[in-house]
Amino acid sequence: MKILVTGAAGFIGMHVARLLLARGDEVVGVDNLNDYYDPRLKLARLEQIRSMPGFRFVQADISDRVAMEDLFARERFQRVVNLAAQPGVRYSLKNPHAYIQTNLVGFGNLLEGCRHNGVEHFVYASSSSVYGANTKMPFSVHDNVDHPVSLYAASKKANELMAHTYSHLYGLPTTGLRYFTVYGPWGRPDMSPWLFTSAILEGRPIDVFNHGRMQRDFTYIDDIAEGTVRVLDRIPEPNPDFRADAPDPGTSYAPYRVYNIGNHQPVELMTFIRTIEDALGREAQKNFLPMQPGDVVATYADVEDLRRDVGFEPKTPLAEGIARWVAWYKAYRGNR
Can you tell me the distance from the alpha carbon of 96 to that of 13, in angstroms, rounded to the nearest whole number? Predict the structure, then answer.
């Protein structure tokens, strides 16, 4: 197939593009290569896929309406995977306009491109952050998610609502993927594995929020990529059992679905830190701090729908994934 992957120089985007290329798909990768974090890491990711047969890279911003209109009209994609977004909960408190521009305006441009150019399936990254103030565990796609606690979370919930509108109005099949705390090789410098690993190796203290009383459903990148590709291959159909008098948030009378992709095994933050310490053979200096605005205490994915519909669930054990992460990080940063 001919597939557009936006955010192709990003953490998840590179891995998804590589998986698609390895199986023989033609991939057009789009990324604006912005400086939210070091663009050299993004360029290094691109080098991992640039030489693979079937890949072409276009430097562009999804929030550029004209550029997206031209790209869709020229390329006539069969399917689209949107992994371009302004990420990060804490940064959304400092620069909200970046989230509005990319996650809302850019997302709308992609929906329009799909609508007008016969795209068969639009798959997009949502986030576990949409569960916001919910405390019922595990988080289910069939639960209401109307109480976001950050603008980032709100923008991802807005994406799901916008996608549903296009599925309803134009019959565009759309699937949202709520990713849970992704980690692994080629990860982002603003995420905890990188922050913790670099600090421990350099002898700096790590910041441990909510005094360590947090849980995350850490999910290894290879599982995320495989789950994404499997979902891309399954075009959603209307749910014949959908009831308008008792609406199910995870399905629809339209060709629309939402799935969790998480390891469905929440890990205590202190256990996560100890796993990194064990892999490095060093102990971290810990700076215990209160909860940060916009953060949540725990995440835990219910993946039953993913398991049922595409026959897949993440399974990489944390110790195995962290060992791979640490080996990659040491090699990338000069084997310190």
Answer: 23
> What is 156-220 written as a DSSP string?
HHHHHHHHHHHHHHH---EEEEEE--EESTT--TTSHHHHHHHHHHHTPPEEEGGGG--EE--EE
pLDDT in tens, 214-273: 999 999 999 999 999 999 999 999 999 999 999 999 999 999 999 999 999 999 999 999
The runs of H, that is alpha helices, within the chain are 11-22, 39-50, 65-75, 91-94, 96-99, 107-116, 151-170, 192-202, 221-232, 269-280, 304-310, 318-332
pLDDT tens-digit series, residues 161-211: 999 999 999 999 999 999 999 999 999 999 999 999 999 999 999 999 998
Q: Report the catalytic residues.
A: 152
* Closest to 58 in 3D by CA, of 78, 41, 74, 79: 74
Inter-residue contact 259 to 141 (CB < 8 Å): yes
pTM of the complete model: 0.95
Helix (H) or strand (E) holding 259: strand 256-261
What are the DSSP calls for 265-276, one per residue? --EEHHHHHHHH
167 burial level (CB within 10 Å; 0-12, 13-18, 19+)? buried
Tell me how crowded residue 26 is: count the other CB atoms within 10 A of its CB.
16
The C-alpha R_g of the chain, in whole angstroms, comes to: 19
Contact between residue 90 and residue 17 where contact means Cβ atoms under 8 Å apart:
no
Tokens of 180: 């849970």
d(CA 84, CA 31): 7
Q: Roughly what angle, to the nearest 10 degrees, separates helices 192-202 and 269-280? A: 50
Backbone φ, ψ for residue 261 (5° rounding)? -125, 100
Residue with the two structure tokens 């911003």: 61
